[in-house]
Every structure is written in structure tokens, then in C-alpha cells.
Fold these 2 entries.
Entry 1:
Amino acid sequence: MQAVQAARAAGAEYADARVVADDSESITVRNQAMEGLDRSSSQGVGLRVLVGGYWGFAATARPEEVERTAGLAVQIAKAASRLPMEPVRLAEVEPATGTWHSPMQQDPFNVPLEEKVALLMEATRRMQAVEGLTFAEGGIDLYRRRTWLATSEGTAVEQTTVHSGAGIEAVALGDGELQRRSFPNSFRGHIAAAGWEHVQKLGLIEEAERTATEAVELLSAPECPSEVTTLVLDSGQLELQIHESIGHPVELDRVLGMEEAYAGSSFVRPEDRGRLRYASDLVSITADATLPGGLGSFGWDDEGVPAQRVPIIVDGIFQDFISSRETASRLGVPSSGAMRADGWQHLPLIRMTNISIEPREGSLADIIGDTEDGIFMATNTSWSIDDHRVNFQFGCEIAWRIKDGRLTQMYRNPNYTGITTEFWQSCDAVGGREDWTLWGTPNCGKGQPGQVARVGHGSAPARFRNVRVGVRG
Amino acid sequence: MPGPIGPDEIRAVSQAALEIPGVDAVEVLFMHVWGGLTRFASSSIHQSTWSEDTELRVRVVVGGRVGVAAGNDFSPQGARRAAESAREMASVVAPDPLFPGLAPADPIEDATRFDEATASATPETRAAGVAELVALCPGGYTAAGAYGTLASEVAVVNSEGQFCWAPTTQASLTTVVTGADGGSGFAETFAARMGDLDPAGIGRRAADKAVASRSPRDVDPGRYPVVLEPSAVSTLVGFLAWIGFGGRTLVEGRSCLSGKEGRPVAAPAVTIFDDANAPGTLGLPFDFEGVRRSRVELIREGVFVDGVYDLRTAKQAGKVSSGHALPSPNPEGPFPLNLFMGPGDASLEEMVAATERGLLVSRFHYSNVVHPMESTITGMTRDGTFLIEGGEITHPVKNLRFTQSILEALTDTSMIGRETELASEFFYSASRVPAMKIESFNFSGRSDH
């Protein structure tokens, strides 16, 4: 509140201040040797001000510099008025007070290092026992963020989030091929807003041998054929499909051109609300910051807007964006509460909360059993999408031919490509609650200077028709 | 505005970490970063920021066991706390059989890459530059982009007696100019001194490209000869660095260049090297474990020479570190941050004139790896793609997806530009590269704009 008062005294019409204290711990083991073991901590304060309808932001790690930093934020806002702009207006929000803590049974930072290392050592030992495996890697990532937000409108909230995750990765090399299998997901596994209990339930040791065996088997598997076919995706891959081709396109700052110079804009327009046929009627997508365990869950966003559940797509029709107070006011609607910053050093941006596909019916086995001919792909390796979020291409770790409802031939190096709305409109099966998983994406990049956010995606296996697979160079 | 903290205070604070008992070796990596960034969109300044931070990253070695802890409390207490945390971690792990020791004493203090005017640039100065750029947008077009002025101060101190320190500055201005008729143009510039930037030149270049690329038409995907402008070439070079040039991937046989030392991997006209000390790049004179950076010939006249190494991978490979360590711990291994591709003798116009039917690509977007061992990547064109017919640019085309082996593209290179530019890649640092003509490049799909 001292920082807010300093900003007001310096001339800000509106000010908010976030004091953030971040702690993290990362452990990486490869072939039963330590690859990396580090802890990091960082704390400071970020000040955001509005002066004459223009934003300014300044941040410092030095408490004694708060008044000077507030003055600098005001100076930055005044300098922005060099170019004309419709003054920023903020959608109304009721000032909030209170505290919030993400759910956690066992604080992962209190678990002895020996226990964490032993888990990874045993998982990698079991992977290494598989003949033909080259590298067996395991990692644990732990994050704790404490945030104190105060605004000149009277909001004063305190939040603590703890995110815990782990995963294993098996790599087999041979004859100019590198094949990789990950569990429970690629890119450091499965991370959730939870404590050590989440890591313990992942089953890294139990799944180590199967994971390594599949990596070795991929070396001798044929290439995924190039064809247009029926495609079934596991929930881990559908998670990233949702992220890139639904989550990012519905960020209202991107839609309004505010990200144009970096990752680009969006094909979705404000007038598409309630009208655009985004997907088949089996597809309903929700942004839900209240989901327990989601990396995008919180009590309030970094503007003090309470966590909400927002329908994005209902039965295939686009409904709404994720937004901030500034962007929502441009459409004359309340903020969806999606503003988050990467630590104290950065200003908040619209970030995905937990953007999830609503479960329908049946298991992955049911979907495969109901498919006469097609390809099943699992676990992301690669992603690429154009600057309007229209043309995409994804690579996966592994695929199998589906023939008469059964998985048959394994394929290596599978990938698929498509056009966002055509692809989602071709969806004719979405799995049910039994195979629905709330995944975490810990590495979502956005903004300049670059920020990284941890976001959540509830995802189920799904089936798509007439998809081009097996793109070659 | 803050300035460099300086060697004396950094030494004094780091000493608290170096003196902790019960350890064999200690390394302190100090980083101090400050600066502002003025971000604009729709020809208005919508996000303008400034921040300052320090980090002390302490690596402790006990009996070959290694732990790392970092914090942003720049004080003797903060340094000691980080060292104690690292020591605790080191005590519970197995020794690293590949631990090479810390960098030996080879002091470096170099303040020649620091520009006070850039370090203390005001938001008013950046806003004036943006205004100058925006003023060059033609009617119906707007500019988005970012004007950043960044200062940093990096030091490495270790118990072997090594001390390296260098303050540096960097100014950057990037923009995308767009119009409702589908026109889109990109331009960027980087320099150690903001006084060397030319906002008007950048604005003019992006605006000209945006106007030229309006009303793009469809073109069928397929294989085409391509003329790649430097921004597009930087994508090929940046990804090759990731999947090819790192000593760790080479040692482990995971590189697309593993086992190809001394063999042709590109056309004879292609030379790629890394040199942090050369004019025309923005580099530190030492790496993040305190080893002096060397110039490394990566591909010389089409032949793969070698990759880059840090102390650990150099020990694995029986080589000497080339000074390319990233901050520890770093499971990815060493990485070349200051890449160059040597120039040729052609102009862009000559490359276009030598193309009977092909495509001119201004820039690639959001590329990613498809097959690392084959150096195949995919991505999209962006901000100006044009059809070349009969040696002339005939019209802009809608954006295309490419899926292409980098090494095959470098092998199919027939002409290289005589001018080089420092050009960024979406996921990487900038490389200084020329334009190139490649005789066969695979476009595997298309978009709607």
C-alpha cells in the first residue's frame, strides 16, 4: 500500500502494486547421475499506474527504491502520451480483500532432498534396465509464489500458489534416429497446483519400464505414413492443441492487436461472439480459474478480479474471450479475470487460466474401439502455428494405426497439420470424465519483454476426421 | 537511473559466498540487468515498462558433488545464504563423474561494450523514436513493435581466483506495420548504442514492405526456389545452433551433425561461425562459467568443423572449452549465442533476377523441430511473401507453411548476399546473416492471409 500511495502522490490516477516472492526448486537426473539441482528465489515489487489514460510500469527488487520507482512509473506513463490513444478505461470491479492458498496436502519444499532424488534415481534405473535405451532422464520442478496485491481502488489481497510436477523421459538413439517417450507428459511431465502428494501419485517408477520400452521400439518402427485420415489424439496432445488453437486465439489483447508485433494476432474478432462456428457441436471449451489443481487457478487475478468460470465455446459456437479490465471495457463487458504477470518484474498480461474441453462420453479405448481406420497419436514433441492462429502443425512422440477398433502397427515421427476451425469442426468424438486430465503447461510464452506463465488445460482424448498426417520435409 | 555496481562491490559481496566452510570450490555468477521497453500497437504506446534486478547464482562443489542456488538479494547475507543452500544440495547427491572443475584464473574486465546514454535512456527518448517510426506509416496502416534499451552487468567470481566482469548495453527496435488490405511488413535493428539506431529507417522499411505485400494471392504449396531475406535465414541458423552445434548434443550423438566432422554438410559458399568479440554482434567476452569466449568455425566453406563447448562437454570430448557455457545448472549444454554466416557476393536484386519462378520470403514465424537428426523444421512465412516470375517480383502471396531440412537447404544454396544483418529469431538470440537463394525449399501448407 506504501507503493500505491507513492504512485498516487507522484500523480497517478490509478495505481496497483504487487509484491511477489518466488521460490523454485528443480532437480534433474540422467542415467542415475545428477544433471542439475538448483533452487532460486526472487522478490520485488511491480508498480502499474494510469496517468491521463496511459499505462506506466516500473519494478524494483530494492525496497528502499519504491518511491523512486513509483515516480518512474508515472514518468513512463506520461511519456506514452507522446502518441495519441483512446484513454484506457477499466471495467468496474468490486474492491477485494482476503487471502487465498492453492490446495496442498504436503509442502514439497519440506520434503527431504534425499527423497526427491531417490525417486528420480529409481525411475531412471528402471528405464536404464531396458536394453537399447540411451538416456533415462527424470525431473522434478517445484514453484511457490506469494503475492500481495494492493490497488488505489481499495483491493488488498494475499495469495500463495504452490505448483509441483515431475516426469520421466526415455531416449533411444540409433541409425540416425532419436526416439523419445515421456511420462506422464512431455516437457517435464505433469505439473499441478498441488503439493508433494501430486508427485507421489504420478507413478513414475511404475511406468518407467514401459516408457523406456516404447522409446526403444520406436527406433525400429516405420515412419508414420503420409495420408489424410481419421486422427485420434490422447489427452496430453489435445491439451496443446487447445492451448495453441483455442487458448491463444481467444485472448482479447491479441484480438485487439496488442500482441501483433510478437506472436501475432488472432483470426477471431469481437463480432464473432455468439456467431462463429468454431468447432463441432461436441466441443465445449471453458476457461475456469476456480478449478482445484489447475496451474491457472487463483483467488483473484493480478488486477484483483475474482477467479471465474467463463464459457469460451459452447456446443461448437464461440461465446467469449478471456480478458482484462482494460480490454473488457472496450467491449463494454466485465473482465473475465485473466490478468497475470510473470513475477514482480513484469506487468500483467491476459494469460490463459485453465482452458479446458468439457468431457463428453466414453474412454480412450471406447473411441479407438469405435474407429474403423485411422491413426492414434500421443504425447507432444513439437508445435507451430501461424501469426493469426489459423494454420498449425504438431508433432507427437508415438502413433499407432487403428484398424477395426484396435491399435495395430506402431509408427515413429508422427505429425499432423490443419486449419484451426476446419480441424475443430471435424471433431466427432470427445472422451468422458474417466480419461479427462487437468494438465499443466508450464512454459507459455507471451509479451515483450518475454514472460512465461504456467497455465492449465483439462483435456480428454478426441477424434477428428479427414486430417492430414505424416508431413515430410 | 542506476548504473553498474562495479567490480569492487561485486567482489566484496561474492566473498561471503566464496568463504563458506566445508566446500571444495565455489563459483558466483552475478547478473545485474536494468532498462526500459516501450511497446506500441495500433500506432499508440500501450505497454511501457522499466525494471531492475540482480541475481547471485552460486555453484558449490563438495567432493565432486554440485549444487546451485540463486537469489536476488545482492548483499553478503544473500550471497552466503545462496552458498549455504547450494552446499546443502550438494551434500545429498552423488558425485558428478564428469565435473571438470571451475574455470582457472584468467581475469577479464571489459567495459568497452557499455554505453552510458543507452543505459540511462529515458522513456521520453524511446517514445520520441517510436513517434518518428509511426509517422512513416501510410494512411490505413498502423505500427506495432517495441523499443528497448537494456543494460546488464555480468561477473563470474570463483575460488580458483577467476574474476570476469563486463557491463554491456543493447538497444533494439522492432516493428510490424499492417494494413486492413492484408499488407504486413517487418523491420528490426539492434545496436550496443541507441544512438546507432535509425527509427525512421526501420519505419520506412516496414511500411514499404507492408504496402508491397497488400492483397496477397493464393499460391499452391510445393517445392520452390526461394530467396530468403536475413530474418528468414536467421531461423535456419538459429535452429541449426539448437539441434546441431552444441557440444553436448555432439558428444552424445544427438546432433544432426554428429559424426559429420570434416564432411560437407552445406554448399561451399556457406560459412558459419560464432564470435562474441567480432564487430557487428552483441556479446559478452566470457561465458557464464568465466571462460574467455573464442571464435569457433562451425561450418567452413560447406564443411562441418566442430561445435561449441563448455568445460564439462570439453572434458567429455577431450577438447578445450570454447567459452560457450550457459548459466548452471544447464542440462542442455553449451550454446553459440553470437552466430555469423559469412557474406557472399550477390545483392538481393540479383538473387531475385536469377529466379525464374520462386518465392521471396521476408521472415519465418513460430518455427519448431520436426526431426532433429535430419535437421527438419517447420514454420510459417510472415510479414511479406512474394512470388517471383521471370526474375521479377510479381505479386505478394498468402503465408505458407514450410517443412524443410536445414542442412538440405544449406546444401541447395546457390547465392549468398553480400550484406549481412543482425536478425532475430522468434525463439533465439540474433544472428548476423546475409540473404540467401536456395534452389529447392519445401512448402507443405498454406494459411488464409
Entry 2:
Amino acid sequence: MARYTKPAEGSWTEHYPELGTDLVSYQDSISEEFYKLEVEAIFKRAWLQVGRLEEIPRSGSYFTKEIKVAGTSIIVVRDGEDVRAFHNICRHRGNRLMWNEDPRGEISGNARMFTCKYHGWGFGIDGSCVNIQQEDEFFDIKKGELGLVPVHCDVWAGFIFVNFANEPSQSLRDFLGPMILGMEGYPFEKMTDKYGFRTEVGANWKIFSDAFQEFYHAPWVHGTQHLPPVTAQIREMGYEAPHYQVESPHALVTTAGSVHRIWEMPAELVKPSDIATKSGLFGPWEGTDLGELPAGINPGGIEPWGLSSFQFFPNFAILIWEAGWYNTHQFWPTSHNSLVFEGNVYCTPSTTATERVGRESAAVTFKEYSLQDANTLEATQMGIEAGVIDSWPLNDQEVLVRHFHKAVADWVKQYQGEHDGVSAS
Amino acid sequence: MTMVPDEFQELEPFAERWALATERERWDQRLGSTMDELQAFYDVMLPRCTDAMAYCDKFPLNDMPEQPVNLLRMIYSFVLISFAVELWRQPAVPDTGATSYDRVSEPQP
């Protein structure tokens, strides 16, 4: 018996009839051929989130980011009010332009110009070539045509996005669409205390992302984050979300506040350290009052509301929590069966030690459950790669997994349609 | 001068080991400890944690003297090891093998 009302069609899945209810293949997650298509069809055509405006606060502030799936490293730089992105490549002999000690490592800082370590060529923060060492030794050199190669770059709600297409087919706002734009007004810019995490995992980027598209796994993978009686109860009840929303290629799942309110549980069922710090699994009990949030944060109008997980196609998610903090997940494929997993927890700057401890709790919990996910998903990748089974059931709480693989397939199909003769074998 | 304030002298024997500035150091310390060591630290921190937070609250977070900063860092360590002691009964998260998830940035203190 469902705890929450489902759409009139009887299920969330059937509410979106284009998704079907059939068994699903994950051939898309074990094929090197298909991965090559995804690179071209998705990662070189979709808008990709690469960082926050607060990371480049002043004109000249910059960071580099290697985006292996696009085969390049970029420089993202603030130029006055503008944010620009360039391929991190010197126009002279192809040296990676900005790096320090290790050319594979990232670098950030403040620059008036970017100077190449190889022969000293210099580029302004607007990308223009401003200095050529021994310029008169060259032949017919046209400095004005030797600026850094730009990458399309735009900013939404303080999130910096890039697009590797020659000409993106949609503006960033058109790509994001009304459901994502409905988050506008959430005070992202005030949440400048950041706890950042990173790791590499041996799983396909979609298989990994799938675990962040649903909470059906939470009672089993994460149920042990409670004391044993609660674990048993959670597993007995299972998980249901009160609201799902698909606005392809993006999607949303909301959870109810009731499951997060640890402080409403009998004390003997709460970890003693949570009582001592008045914080824990879902962040500080006291919460941070961010004022009235935009209605688009909780588009299902769920009360009590607990969490909204916005899934940005293709590889980014923002999770907004009732307790007044948010986190992000990002999945950067490095091959058909490996990825770099980045996560950040963002809060307003702590004003007291007690507040800071509450946020520390949230960040610590975030790591404990992310570790549980990461190892489980290497195991999933192995199981699928065995190739013994190629059709898998998905239930109604996994509707966004079903949608995600379809959205990827749709983008690949569209790309193939535009490029005759390109096919996945 | 002791590492932690006089009011918290029972924590002093643990300060050198647990008043660590970064999560990476605290995580390494957790994984490098026996359960007996984690339990001993947990047992001394649990009854004093609320008092210690109240003590630290008397100082501005961005200009805190050394002793309360050490105390605060010990509270972070307590939060970090609480999972190992209260739930996992082992230093590492169960079933996570060689998987890591490194904290690469964090506010200070």
C-alpha cells in the first residue's frame, strides 16, 4: 500500500508513458563503443557544470579543470563582470598553459596574464595574445589571431557551465528548462562554506549516477547509519518518495521531512553523539534559517518537505535539504567503466562553534554514506560486466533511473541521426 | 600551557592525538587506531561534548585562541569517530574496502 498518492495513471513511471515499464538493458554502461558515442553526443554538446562563482571572486581569479571526457583541460577566469573559459593550451607549441609542478594537477589563483612556462608567451585574461617572446624572429605572425581558444561559458545562479560544442544548440537557460530554473532565488551565493570531496571509482558514470537517482537503496546500503532497531524498522518500511518529476533530460525527486527529523525520534533510538552535538545524519537539528525558499525548490508542494534532489543532465546533481544546507554530486567519466566522483557540501559561514560542529556532522555523514555508495557501485559494475544478464527490472521508485538511461539513449540517437553512419555496434 | 582549557583536563591526554587541523589527518588517525583507542577517546568526549561546544561558543570563530581551537578540533574528531564506535564496531566504513573519498577543502578552523 503506497504511503503517498501516486499520479492518476497508477504510478510515477506510467505518468511518463514514453518511459515504458519493460525490463532495461545496461549494455549502455559496459560498452566502450557506446561510451565513445556518449562523449560526442552528450559531453561535447550538453552544458556541463564546472564550479561556483565564489571560486573566482575577483577579476583575474581563475582555476583550471581537466575534463578528461572532453579530452581537454580548461581555464575558467573572471574578467571584470564576465566569466570566460579557454582551452588550457598555449597557441605557440601546444604546451599546457597553466599548471604547477605536475602538469596533470589543477591550479587556481589570481593572474593579470597567463604566461607559458615553455617560451614565455603571454595571454590576457580575455584570452588575447599579449606577448610573443622575440616576436620579430617569427614569419608573418599575427598576434591578434593567436588568442586562447575559447570554450562557451555561461553562469546560472552562480554555477559556472561550459559547453564544448562549436555552437551550442541551446542557450544555458533553455537547456536547464523551467523545473531547474524554478530553483532561482535559493541563496546559493550566501552558502560560501564548502566541504569538498573527490575520489575515483571503477564504475560507469551512469551506473554510479543511478544510485543518486533513487533512494530505494537507502534502507539497505545506508540503513546501518542508524541504531539497529531503526535499521530494522527502515528496512521493514522500505522507501517511498512523495514526488517525482521528469522534465527530460533533467529530473527531480523529493523526500518527505518526516524521515529526516531525528530529533522527533525517542532518545534511545538516536546515536548518543547526535544528541550531544544536536546534529548528525541529515545535518544540524537547529537548521539554518534561509528565509522563505522559492516554491520551485519543492515543486510537488510536499509537507513536511525534507529534501529535493535536482538531477541535472548529464552529470550533476544539487540536493537541497530542509536543515538549510545543500550539497552537489558530480560524475566525470574517465572511461566506459571508471569515473571521478566529486561532491561538495555548502553552508552559510558558521558564526559559532556549535553551528560549525553541526555542519561538520553533515559533512562527516556525507562522506560515510558516499563511501558506502562508491564501493557498492564497483560491485554493480562487475556484475553487469559479467554479461550473463542483459535485462533488468526497475520499480516505480527507480523511475528516474529508467528516465536517465532513456535520456542518454535519446541524445545518442539524435546525434547519430545528425551524423549518418555513426552507430554503436 | 596545556593544549586544552583547564576545565577540560580529562581530555588533555587525548589532545595531541586528536586535536588535528584537517579532516584528512583525523580520518587517517581513525583508520590507524584500534577500537580500544577509539572507544577510550569516545568515552571521555561524549559526556563533555555539549560543555565543550558551549565553551568554544564564547569565542569568535574566526579569531579563536589556541586552547578552544584544539577543543573544537577534538569535537570534530569525536564526530568523525562516532560512526566507528556507535555503529560500525570497526574503524572503517563496512564494505568499503580500498575505496576512498578524500576531503579536499574545508572551512578553518
